Every structure is written in C-alpha cells, then in structure tokens.
Amino acid sequence: MARGHQKIQSQQKNAKKQAEAKKSKGHDQKTAAKAALVFTCGVCRSQMPDPKTFKQHFESKHPKSPLPPELVGVEA
User: Fold this and answer.
1) Which residues does UniProt assign to the signal peptide (predicted)?
2) How far is CA 42 from the centre of its chain?
C-alpha cells in the first residue's frame, strides 16, 4: 500500500487521468442514436430514423388515421 506523499501523488495522477478520459470521450452511443431519430409520429410520438420505417410504422400501427403528407410519395 502506498503511504503519505506517494498516495497523494497517485490520487492526483488518477484524477487527472479520469478528467482527460471524460473530456476526450465527448459523445456516447446513446446521444448519437437519439440524434439519428429524425421522424416523429404525430399520433403516438414515437421516433423513427428514416421515412420508410416511419411509413411502415404508420400503416401498421395507425391504419385508420390518414397518412401524413410527408409520407405520401415514400415507398415502403
């Protein structure tokens, strides 16, 4: 076990290393995935990454609702 001055130096070195790692990380997978979800269903507020998936979702989950204008030309 480290004692005294060596222990303090080790703690400072570790704190600096942790701060560097946190700073360099920048972004994580969860925020990147959330940024990719750009289409939002107006009925249930679920989010989809692309118009094809959005149209498939809308046709299967909300068949009685009219199709939104942004999905009219999209092929599923």
Assistant:
1) none
2) 20
